[in-house]
């Protein structure tokens, strides 16, 4: 069921690897950083969540238990949240490492690059402001390349912004090219909330009954 989606992911990975390699003098990602897996919303489509669940099912029981506890905790926090935009740490982050790395969603793969916004402006990732990606070359607001910093670095290539927004990478163009559908999109945690049964629906679709038993946080 994931055949075409995996072909798309292979294509995406190859593109992103090239992009990240071309920016390596500005990238400070390390295993265990995990900051981009915290305090965010993580948009996920139905296809991505099913794939994530397939990864979950391959984990050992102890790790699955940790994730289930995380899911329960975040779902509870969301239930009690009164504000407008609920932000949370990804429940699949275990000891600051992604437990389902090979199965992570599109947003998780592209984050960390500098992007172009719809109005053509460049946008550094949030971690730029925390001293990580592009912080050695961008101005303090992360909106412009600092010529002073660029000169001080002594590198030849200026940083490049890429069109790697979630909206673009999960657009119809890619669905048509690779012959699959992303389906409905919403924040990752919403797929696991009991009130809309989305987690169960995703699990039921995943062809493995174990998913339903393990992942629902109702
Ligand atoms: S993108 Fe930023 S926050 Fe995420 S791992 Fe890389 S440096 Fe850390
Ligand atoms: S699925 Fe993995 S990479 Fe994506 S936000 Fe969660 S922990 Fe981070």
Describe what this molecule looks like in 3D:
The protein has 218 residues and is mainly α. It has one domain (3-113, 164-215). Helices cover 41% and strands 6% of the residues. A two-stranded antiparallel ribbon has the order 1-6. Strands 2-3 form a two-stranded antiparallel ribbon. Strands 4-5 form a two-stranded antiparallel ribbon. A hairpin with a 2-residue loop joins strand 2 and strand 3. The longest helix is centred in the N-terminal third of the chain and has 20 residues, at 3-22. The radius of gyration is 18 Å and the shape is globular. The two termini are 26 Å apart. The chain binds iron/sulfur cluster (SF4) (2 copies). One iron/sulfur cluster (SF4) binds next to loops.
Attribute tags:
6% strand; single chain; binds iron/sulfur cluster; globular; disordered C terminus; mainly alpha; 218 residues; two-stranded antiparallel sheet; 6 strands
């Amino acid at each position: 069921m994931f055949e075409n989606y995996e072909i798309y992911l292979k294509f995406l990975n190859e593109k992103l690897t090239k992009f990240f390699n071309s920016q390596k003098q500005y990238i400070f990602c390390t295993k265990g950083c995990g900051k981009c897996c915290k305090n965010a919303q993580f948009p996920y489509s139905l296809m991505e969540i099913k794939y994530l669940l397939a990864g979950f099912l391959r984990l050992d029981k102890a790790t699955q238990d940790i994730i289930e506890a995380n899911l329960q905790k975040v779902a509870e926090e969301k239930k009690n949240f009164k504000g407008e935009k609920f932000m949370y740490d990804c429940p699949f982050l275990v000891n600051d490492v992604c437990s389902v790395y090979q199965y992570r969603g599109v947003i998780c793969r592209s984050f960390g690059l500098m992007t172009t916004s719809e109005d053509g402006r460049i946008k550094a990732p949030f971690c730029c402001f925390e001293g990580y990606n592009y912080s050695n070359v961008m101005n303090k607001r992360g909106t412009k390349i600092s010529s002073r910093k660029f000169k001080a670095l002594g590198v030849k290539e200026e940083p490049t912004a890429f069109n790697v927004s979630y909206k673009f990478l999960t657009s119809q163009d890619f669905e048509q090219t690779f012959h699959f559908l992303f389906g409905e999109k919403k924040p990752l945690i919403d797929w696991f909330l009991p009130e809309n049964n989305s987690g169960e629906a995703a699990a039921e679709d995943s062809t493995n009954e174990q998913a339903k038993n393990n992942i629902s946080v109702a």
